[in-house]
Every structure is written in C-alpha cells, then in structure tokens.
Design goal:
The structure holds 2 protein chains of 2 kinds. By secondary structure, chain A is an alpha/beta fold. Helices cover 22% and strands 24% of the residues of chain A. Chain A has 5 helices and 11 strands; from the N terminus they run βαββαβαββββαβββα. Chain B is α+β, with helices and mostly antiparallel strands. Chain B starts with a strand and ends with a strand. The chains are: A alpha/beta, B alpha+beta. The interface between A and B is medium-sized, with 19 and 11 residues. Chain B: This is Phosphoribosylformylglycinamidine synthase subunit PurS.
C-alpha cells in the first residue's frame, strides 16, 4: 500500500506521519514538496500537522495556495483518499476541499493533551475498522481547532454523516460546534481532523487507538 | 495608488479574542465598553492607475486569499 506525505515549510509533525505510515503500510511514503505539481499514484495522501508558513494570515491559508495543493485537489477529485491532521485539516479547509473554518480555541489557549473521540460514523473509508459509537483516545495539540460552519452547512454535515469524529465525554478542548473533531467531504474520500491519530499507533505511544484509522484508509486488515 | 482592506468577522461568528479584549478593557477601568470584535487591516500599494481595475483586483485578492469568506467579511477602500 503506497502513500504520500505533503511537506511544507513550518510543518513539524511530518516525521511522525512518515513513521506511522511506514510502520503501518510496511513501506516509507513518498514525500512531495510544496512546489511539486504532481503527486505519484498512491493509495493515500497525508497532510501532517504543524505550523505551515508560521500560521501567517490564517492557519493553513498560505499553504492552501501552494502548487502542491492543486495537485492534491486533482487527486482528491479522482477519488484518492486524502487525510489532513491538525494543520493539515486547516489547510484542507482553507483549500476549499472541506467545508467550514477552524477558528481560535474558545479558551484562547494552546491545548496539548489527550482527549476522547467518539466514532460518529464508522461507515467511511477512514473508520471502517472502528465500531459505530466506539470511544477512542487521541492526543491533540493545537491553538486553532474550533470548528465552525454556518447553520446550513452544519445541517448538511450532520444529515449526511460527514461528521466522523466527535470529542466525547466532555473532552472538547476547543469549543468546536457540535463537538466536531473531524469531518469528511461529500464524496467521503477527504478527511480532516484536529487530533493526532498518528501519535497513538503502538504500545510505545501508550496505546494504538489511532492505528485503525490508517489501516482503514490503506485497506489493511486489522 | 494605495488601498486599504479591512477584514472583519461576520455577525454570529464567535470571536473569543474580541471577548478577551472586551474584558481586558473593562479591567482597565474603561466603563461603557460594549461588544469588541477583532479584525485585520491590509495596506496595499498598487502600481496601476486604473481605479476600476484596482477595485476588481482587490476584491479578487480578498476572495482568493485575504479573507476567509466562510467566517469573514471584507471592505475595500482606495485612497
């Protein structure tokens, strides 16, 4: 199973994403740089977390307008699975590949802790190895994860099962609307989430709750 | 030609930073401060002289980059 990781200046979770994909898929992902206009044929494209372009203007705003993101959009339109974690989620939203916006945490504080997530939709290519309603653990580390969408968009997301991950048991760390932690696009092949599943994939991490997400996306039997 | 673009949050979008500033102002003893909303200002120098074209370009800049129209409004002002 082949994957690719998008690299942008200011990302800092790229090594974690590369390590997770290497361990889970059995081979190192290809890496694509911000100026690349083509992405090799892969089964999964991942945009890692961090602070691309120093979060200048808005988180993910500059990165979303780099040439590599046009290539990501082309692949996404062809149905290639794309996952954006943390800053990667912000970049996907800014690029218009996912609806809504990610705003400053309601607490105004950077949060770095473990939260609980409910699998709000286990019928997606990213969550098929989880059970519906299953509660998993995941680390979060962000300053701007407060998901917002207008009422019409929100109703559509909820109605179509596009809300995939929700903060559970009062662990919403950022004030996001409807406790939304992760969503997919209407075609279901682009996922954005604020938590870091790549940081909980093996015993050394203290658990492997995040592993099934990548196994689901890569079509690897659990 | 000089232009100023003002980007503000749309009504109904929660602004925790504005709220914090509001509280800080009342903490400093400024009575009678109502709601505070935080925004951004961009001063842009343009080399052309065609005002109509500049206005169209500036609006396109806002739609494509300077504002996130999901949550923000913008106003364009040409000096």
């Amino acid at each position: 199973m082949k994957s690719a990781v998008v690299l942008l200046p200011g990302l800092n979770r790229d090594r974690d994403m590369i390590a997770a994909l290497t361990k889970i898929s059995g081979q190192a992902p290809a890496t694509v740089w911000q100026t690349d206009t083509e992405i090799p044929d892969v089964d999964l494209i991942a945009i890692p977390g961090g602070f691309s372009f120093g979060d200048y203007l808005r988180c993910g705003a500059i990165a979303a307008r780099m040439p590599v993101m046009r290539a990501v959009a082309e692949k996404a339109a062809k149905g290639v699975p794309v996952i954006g974690v943390c800053n990667g989620f912000q970049i996907l939203v800014e690029a218009g590949l996912l609806p809504g916006a990610l705003m400053r945490n309601a607490s105004l504080k950077f949060v770095c802790r473990q939260v609980k997530l409910e699998i709000a939709n286990a019928n997606t290519m990213f969550t098929r190895h989880y059970k519906p309603g299953q509660i998993i653990r995941s680390p979060v580390a962000h300053h701007d994860g407060n998901y917002f969408a207008d009422a019409e968009t929100l109703a559509r997301l909820e109605g179509e099962g596009q809300v995939v991950f929700r903060y559970a048991e009062g662990t919403n760390p950022n004030g996001s609307i409807n406790d939304i932690a992760g969503i997919v696009n209407d075609k279901g092949n682009v996922l954005g989430l604020m938590p870091h599943p790549e940081n909980l994939i093996e015993a050394a991490h203290g658990g492997n709750d995040g592993r099934a997400l990548f196994e689901s996306a890569l079509g690897i039997a659990a | 030609m000089k232009a100023r673009i003002t980007v503000t949050l749309k009504n109904g979008v929660l602004d925790p930073q504005g709220k914090a500033i509001e509280h800080a102002l009342s903490g400093l003893g400024f009575d009678g401060v109502g709601q505070v909303r935080q925004g951004k200002v961009f001063d842009i120098e343009l080399t052309g002289t065609d005002k109509a074209k500049a206005e169209a370009d500036l609006k396109a800049m806002c739609d494509k980059l300077l504002a996130n129209t999901v949550i923000e409004n913008y106003a364009v002002e040409i000096a």
